[in-house]
Structure prediction request, 258 residues.
Amino acid sequence: MNTAEINVLEEIELDNPIFIEALPGLGHVGKLAADHMIDELEATKFAEIHSPTFPPQVLVRDEGIIENMYNELYYLRDVGEDNLDLIILVGNTQALSPEGQYLVCKEILDFVSKNYNIDRIFTLGGMATTPQPVENPKIFGAATNEANVELLREAEIEIRSNDGGIVGASGLFLGLGVRQGIHGMCLMGETPGYFIDAEAAEALLKKLSHILNFEINVDKLDERAEETRQMIAKAQQMEQDLINKANAGNADDLRYIG
Prediction:
């Protein structure tokens, strides 16, 4: 029995497309970057994916309307100066269990590799480096071979080295891809990870567009990042006000002693 139910909405032909994975993770960095690509470059959805390995729930959206847990595949043709074809995997969830992660990632990879002969894999995500918001987030990278590591270096991406693994779909797609002779890399935006980090997503997307040689307007991401910065600044000011009030109260108490 297949673990992933892949419903093809449109039969398409692509020329050795690059596969990009950007499922939800730390700070939703990869997902936000890929969703922005889909909107700005007007990608077309061609498949929906459902699985019993996804969390046993639905999401409640505006006005009480529910949304199933799902993944989706989009395609783009002739992107950038190199006229690349792309397949982008996005969604609102990853598989819940380690076994589910392996099974679903393998079935999706088998589907895109056998039907579309994918050329390379890029996985996008976040990397938690600090509990504090980052003003100029770095982009970290890891790859499946030295040639791709060199591409990361040329793009001035900081290479991760012997400091832990890449958990979830972003790691598994690369590992499973190597077993099929498909190479690629993971790009990770520096983020605290506890809020939707548009600034890290913007930085990541700029690096990805540089590597793949295409242009994309990131104004909407920049606007969202500014909104987040203002929200964080307001929260920090409220926290500082509470600390100041608490300290002032302690000082008043001390005047009654002796």
